Please model this.
Amino acid sequence: MARIVMKFGGTSMAGMERIRNVAARVKHVVSQGNEVAVVVSAMAGETDRLVGFCREASALYDPAEYDVVVAAGEQITSGLLAMTLKAMGVDARSWLGWQLPIHTIESHAKARVESIETDALLAAMASGQVAVIPGFQGMMEDGRVSTLGRGGSDTSAVAVAAAIGADRCDIYTDVDGVYTTDPRIVARARKLDMVTYEEMLELASVGAKVLQTRSVGLAMKEGVRVQVLSSFDDPTQDDLPGTLIVSEEELEESKMERQLITGIAHDKNEAKIILTRVPDRPGAVASIFSPLAEASINVDMIIQNDSKDKEETDVTFTVPRADLARSVDLLESLKDQIGFYRIITDVEVAKISVVGVGMRSHAGVAATMFKTLADRGINIEAISTSEIKVSVLIDEDETELAVRVLHTAYGLDADAPAA
Ligand code: ADP
Ligand code: ASP
Ligand code: MG
Model:
């Protein structure tokens, strides 16, 4: 017998037929004698719909009320799944975020899980009852409903798994694992049997939304065993082929052949800002980025172009698209202090990243990336790197082409011989 957390995403919960399929899968896992907690997302599209209502209600909506609205999607699916399980003869009940409770901290709309009370949950599970928990939601210190940021049900599942000491956290979604790149963009993407926490963390943070970044960080910190699986396979099939997130040592032990590059991701959620003719003197760059940091705006890529006369410079950087208007307002208000001439913005950009721990020991990964893109006439507007990642900013319209040609260039195509 094992204690298992099963998480089902939006597409898996979209409509009663799919919920019945999910219930059948849960029933199968319960019938093998396991204790089960299920974490569910809202039906696909539902959270977007609810966010749309908030925007319509007020451009500057109150984040605490936003949480009340958007947490509702998961309340519906958790009740429906518990009902469906009961109708199939499986004892089950829903536990809303505030009922457990799942304590969260920091800010509404992007709250962080601090702790989960598990006594009642574990007692119910030990009695054979399936616990159905709405993902994405929690409760602030003052008792108000909170949500964990988009895609946050993955993090709910990992947090529940860590809190109850689960043997496994199975993330069921609409693809059958983690691929070398988004399989919806590159048909020849290859499924990975295993991927390390570190690489998955980096891939998620640069746009591979198959897992929310925070869920991977939490799983790594708490040692939660995470598996990504398809919810569309036969619900009674054992040993589904998925992707296991493992430690570096486990991967070494498995003797799996390792590619130089593990995966490629793209992200269309950034916007580019150029400040022209910034005075080229000590402190100028700090006068731009310190106020942005104080406003909790995350700056990602940065480049500074020397001007010919060396007295002025253009500074280019990216911020999350959602923070663009706020960034521009803030910079405009500091125009005299910073001393720039003009702000130019561009939202039609995409960040393409290649990730792999192999980069640590092999030179030339970035050079291959630049040459491959240049051969296709794709212009690079900014570059950033980490120890295991190289990212470039390009025109949004060239996203698919760039991902495809890089996938081939690094030998990742499913029908290509290993590089
Ligand atoms: P869920 O609703 O189950 O949480 P998501 O839509 O959040 O599902 O995540 C699954 C999607 O992630 C897939 O449909 C796929 O398009 C996308 N995706 C992006 N990168 C990858 C990748 N490297 N491997 C697998 N899926 C990926
Ligand atoms: N329903 C939420 C969202 O769409 C949370 C999730 O599905 O993970 O962002
Ligand atoms: Mg998701």
Remarks:
- The chain has a mean pLDDT of 93.
- The chain has 14 helices and 20 strands.
- The pocket of aspartic acid (ligand 2) is lined by residues 9-10, 41-42, 47, 73, 135-136, 150-154 (CB under 6 Å).
- The two ends are 41 Å apart (CA to CA).
